[in-house]
């Protein structure tokens, strides 16, 4: 098994290093922008130039550095970068070897196709976990440089939640790579199947939650439960609320996503056992 993991690492190490670089850039950029954004927001609040901003909850960003990190990293840009590279990690393997003519040699080794698949999935998962923990490390160092403090335990919990919900991205990327010929076609299919509903649901549910928050703050009657779509909101499940504990983890969404992940993995194994290399 260790040899299979090492082989998977050799195939994905360039993308992994690129992922580390992208994560560092995103984290450093938004930590560097913190002071400037806070001054801008404070001016808007004093002058009441942006009531939508005030009622949207971003007022917390002025006073809570932890909320600021959660909003810009785990609820937005770091999450998107992580999901992109998680999908990229899923590619290569036996399909790439079939294109290069070496798949028959690999399949001739005393290793089942399922072990090939799960070895790759294990390496992809390890790299994805490493990417999320590296973001925590960068934030710890960067925050100390700009003299800001936050809860490290909350950052670790958010990193764990991002990986737990984002496992669906890994599974779907692996399925698309198994079903479709060629890296580019399978990558395009993965980005479309994940990206379109991911971004649409994220924007839709953000608007719903902001509207509900504004109604509460304006002492208007609240709306009933909005939509079952929130259980499929992958972005929200990966981000969670900014203060995570056992009660605030989106368990229903996680169960839905884990069920879909299991179905996708089962389909990948079933097709991978029958494919002609």
UniProtKB/TrEMBL annotation:
It comes from the Bacteria. This is ABC transporter permease. GO terms for molecular function: ABC-type transporter activity. Keywords: Membrane, Transmembrane, Transmembrane helix. The chain crosses the membrane at residues 12-31, 77-95, 116-143, 155-177, 184-205, 248-271. GO terms for cellular component: plasma membrane. It comes from Terriglobus albidus.
